[in-house]
Design goal:
This protein is an alpha/beta fold. Helices cover about 35% and strands about 20% of the residues.
């Protein structure tokens, strides 16, 4: 499957992304991770067929519009964006494929709209990041303070694309090809000011780096997972990520009414680095709802 550029206008603004595959096949909406973009699914798409795959740049990422001033990036707020994208595509029912943050957002959409979601593939996340109840006030204070302090900060400017690629490789432990896919879609050219030379800066909204103002507690997250009624395939890499360690990630997956958990060796971006292996696990599930080997 080869992916091509597309754009949609939804209430929040212009959404850009990549799409490809067979029209009138299974509709799959692919949601990328935090500070990634639609190119996250390019390696995986090369090993998938029999579906129509649409991978948007979520608001504030890649080439899509940023949220307006005063708006807050949150999983709950992203639910409306996902549904607006599906509406603009003319999709009443569809499958969700999410990685990391995208899997967290997908969890909320699947729980909130059981009549619209046929099945759900969650890679390296399920539910949402939880917070201790007695940290609610402190988290809110920290988030507001960070928000107010952001106004005067300047974006890092890279002299060339290769330097940005190396920075992304170091930050996420990515191979050069995977990092380059994300970086080339996630940069904008900037002009120099005064004695500062021009170069390249991240296109993502700096507000995405702010702490989330309010998070659910773990009991709330578990209730959310129980509400995901569609067939769900959860794919985790081994070793586990610090934000979703064992046994927590296994316990959450076990709460799914119709769920299957697969764990395979790899890193957080295994869908990019081990795309053929991941496609072999999820390909049949995307078309039929039955994971490979079931």
């Amino acid at each position: 499957m080869e992916l091509r550029e597309f754009q949609l206008d939804i209430p929040m603004g212009r959404i850009s992304g990549l799409r490809g595959g067979a029209a009138r096949a299974a509709n799959v909406l692919a949601l990328h991770g935090w500070l990634d973009n639609a190119a996250s699914f390019v390696p995986l798409a090369a090993h998938l067929d029999g579906i129509e795959l649409v991978a948007p740049d979520l608001p504030g990422h890649g080439r899509s519009a940023h949220l307006p001033r005063g708006a807050d990036y949150s999983f709950a707020g992203a639910v409306a964006t996902v549904l607006d994208i599906a509406d603009a595509l003319g999709w009443e029912r569809f499958t969700l494929l999410g990685h990391s943050m995208g899997a967290g957002i997908g969890s909320l959409v699947a729980a909130a709209c059981p009549g619209r979601i046929e099945r759900f593939v969650a890679i390296e996340a399920l539910g949402a990041l939880a917070e201790e109840a007695d940290r609610t006030g402190a988290r809110l204070r920290e988030a507001v303070a960070a928000q107010r302090a952001l106004a005067g900060k300047r974006l890092r400017v890279f002299p060339d694309i290769a330097t940005a690629v190396r920075a992304r490789m170091h930050a996420n432990g990515l191979s050069e090809p995977a990092a380059r896919l994300l970086v080339e879609r996630g940069l904008v050219r900037v002009l120099g000011e005064g004695e500062s030379p021009g170069g390249y800066a991240w296109s993502s909204d700096p507000r995405l780096t702010l702490p989330t103002m309010v998070r659910m507690t773990e009991p709330q997250v578990r209730d959310l997972v129980r509400a995901i009624a569609c067939p769900t395939l959860v794919l985790h890499a081994e070793p586990a990520q610090p934000y979703l360690p064992e046994p927590l990630r296994g316990e959450r997956a076990a709460l799914l009414p119709v769920g299957t958990l697969r764990v395979m060796p790899g890193g957080h971006h295994l869908h990019m680095e081990q795309s053929a292996e991941v496609a072999a696990v999820i390909g049949g599930f995307l078309e039929t709802g039955v994971p490979a080997g079931a």
